[in-house]
Amino acid sequence: MEKSQQNINEFNKMKILTIIANPLGWLNPNMPGGGEITTTNSLEEWNRNGVGIITIEPESCSVSRRLNKSYKTVLVRLIKKKNNSLTSMLIYPFWIIGTIIAAKREKFDLVYSPTSNITDLLPAFVISKMLKKPIVSSLKISIYDEGKKKIFSKIREDGSSILSSILRTIGALIALRLLRKSDLILTPSKPLKDSLISEGFEEEKIFLIDHGIDIKEIKEKNYPQKIYDICFFSRVEKHKGIYDFLGLCKMFSKTKINFKAVVIGDGPDMKGVKKYLESNNIEKQVILKGFISDRKRFTYVKESKILIYPTYFNEGWGCVVPEALNCEVPVISYDMKNTKTIFGHLKSIFFVKTGNINELYKESNRILTLNNQEYKKMKDIAKSEGANYDIKKIAKIEINKIKKLVLKKNE
Question: Where do the CATH 3.40.50.2000 domains begin and end in the chain?
Fold first, then answer.
């Protein structure tokens, strides 16, 4: 009985150590990834629910510091503040050593790897084994959903060079071996779960759950005037579909009077985007807002009639979809397998063939020409469906699952 009570006390005081490498930030410190933003939002909610959160992050690109999160963040200084692909590989061993040294100074009950990136998962795994703590991993990217034999081809589909694809494949295969040793794997994708089971993973260790978003933050300012016809809300790069979006804007600029569009985000192709707008004389119709870390970004989405989600990446989830729905904005997406598997049951997201800008135009035009009553009905459906992704609800489920794991390990 005394041991049981002691376990309950430990249950209520649980502390989680999380590794957030933000590898995109190694290349561009001013560009937090969507996955890292989703992770820090979840950790903030776990923290609000009484779980002690400690993160270890690179000093030059700490997402938690950039977004002013309230939990404890320990910073590791990289050799260089801004890197390229080659120097990122060279400093990786120093990152692992730095995380281990930082972890040894902290007290915690469990290690959490929020992604399957080797930059998060490997140091988390090493810390777990060295300090004999259970490890929970989150699997989001869909390169694993057709088995390990298809990993290279899926990475190539995301636009990586051959050399980069080889290196990423090696990292993904190592990550797959480490994932197998995780005490618990969280994933929002049933195809990913099924694929892991077919690879011999223990089904009881894989927990299927959607990610959550901060609905309260989104809903703080409602019912703005619709200024923009369409919106792009993602990292500004080719394989996120930015040039398809611009091609759509060009088509509308010729067919729709007073057409307006907005791009929310930053990325490696921003210079190319500006050049495209100028060369096609649509720079006054397509407004570039850049990366916005505060809730103002949602105001621009709410001021749009449609969110366009033309990504070519094998996205693991796609937080912009439920974010748009909670802004009461319908979504038009390319029919990428994982996106359609996860969100295909929703009535406020519409799919067109990947890469077909003509279909993108026809579907966008259909929604833009709806009468007020029909469009309001679509907005109401989006609002209702988006509410299912409330981070408060999702976080409680995640915390309970993780706490049960810690209790079991302490028995």
Answer: 2-212+391-410, 215-389
Q: Is 364 in contact with 180 (CB distance < 8 Å)?
A: no
Task: Look at residue 4 in the predicted model and tell me its pLDDT.
Answer: 42
The token pair that represents 69 in the structure block: 């999160």
- Give residue-wise pLDDT tens across range 53-88: 999 999 988 999 988 899 999 999 987 766 666 667
| Phi, psi torsion values for 186, nearest 5 degrees | -100, 130
Provide the token pair at 245. Answer: 């979006």
Report the candidate in 101, 169, 109 with the shortest Cα–Cα distance to residue 136. Answer: 109
**Which of the residues in the chain have pLDDT under 50?**
1-11
Q: Is the dihedral of CA 167, 173, 179, 181 positive or negative?
A: negative
Coil, strand or helix: which one is 17? strand
Residue 256 exposed, middle or buried by CB count within 10 Å (0-12, 13-18, 19+): middle
Superfamily of domain 215-389 in the CATH hierarchy:
Glycogen Phosphorylase B; (3.40.50.2000)
Secondary structure of residue 21 in the 3-state scheme: coil
d(CA 124, CA 134): 10
Q: Which residues are within 8 A (CB) of 42 and not within 5 positions of it... i.e. 6 or more apart?
A: 114, 211, 212, 391, 394, 395, 398
pLDDT at site 144: 65
User: Residue 137 pairs with which residues in a beta bridge?
Assistant: 113, 185
What number does CATH give the domain 2-212+391-410?
3.40.50.2000
CA 321 to chain CA centroid, Å, is 11
57 vs 41: CA distance, rounded Å: 15
234-265 pLDDT, tens digit per residue, is 989 998 999 999 999 999 999 999 999 999 99
Q: Please name the helix (run of DSSP H) or strand (run of DSSP E) that holds residue 208, with its range, or none.
A: strand 206-208
